[in-house]
Please model this.
Amino acid sequence: MTIWHPFTLLNESSVGWFAALLVLVLVFAAAEYATGAPLQRATGQGIIALELAGTVERTRQILSAWEQKDVNSRTLATVNVAFDYPFLAAYSTCLALACSFAGQAFSSVSSPLATWAPVMAWLAWTAGVCDAVEDFGLLQSIQGPVVSPWPQLSASFAYAKFGLIILTFLYSLAGAIAWLLQRL
Model:
């Protein structure tokens, strides 16, 4: 059975789309950094600490630490998570496209890794879905009382997201190396 992904229809002339997405990723990452930096500076615990808190108690500790430093923590955290929605769309699509390009590079050297390209591209988008679910849980904790299951949901989907990002990034990196070695 062959797994299909929309990016399998693209070719090397689609590099412009990849570059545009990469610029978007960098713009949204900068926006997230700008809104998350005051939280990080105030307590040494940024939004990633909240993503991975995993328990009601730990989530409350992080939010309380932010609030004690008078950094408009809930507003900043809400804006930070809001920027994450366009960011996750951009980075997951950028990674999916990179996986498709990696598949083409593997195919040109007759590597069996080429067959994994559509799976990896779907997994990149799955990372984005995990990030969206995580963000929903974060917003529940940030904007309302911190209760189960939101911290556990956020942490579970954050770990899944990070795992999928690492996996698809490594596949893309291996494809880029294969592409570069062809040109040497």
About this structure: The radius of gyration is 19 Å. The mean pLDDT is 91. Residues 12-183 form one domain. DSSP finds six helices and no strands in the chain.
